[in-house]
Design goal:
With about 70 residues, this protein is mainly α. Helix content is about 80%, strand content about 0%. It contains 4 helices and no strands.
């Protein structure tokens, strides 16, 4: 719930890197909880924010995080 609240709060700002980081954190939490569809949606939102900002390093990190196996 806390990760979702953080991501929601970040949506209200123009800080695209912050938005991306919060969406990526939410995606990680959801992925680890086995909520893959929701995790994918949050990861897409993170990727969009990072790409819009031009932060290609962070965009690549989204792909890396989302392809890691859940242990």
């Amino acid at each position: 719930a806390m990760a979702r609240e953080s991501a929601s709060a970040a949506e209200e700002t123009d800080a695209l890197n912050l938005r991306g980081e919060m969406e990526l954190a939410l995606a990680e939490v959801l992925r680890l909880a086995g909520r893959n569809d929701e995790a994918a949606a949050a990861a897409r939102a993170a990727l969009h924010a990072f790409e819009k900002k031009g932060n290609l390093v962070a965009a690549e990190r989204v792909m890396t995080v989302m392809t890691q196996p859940v242990v």
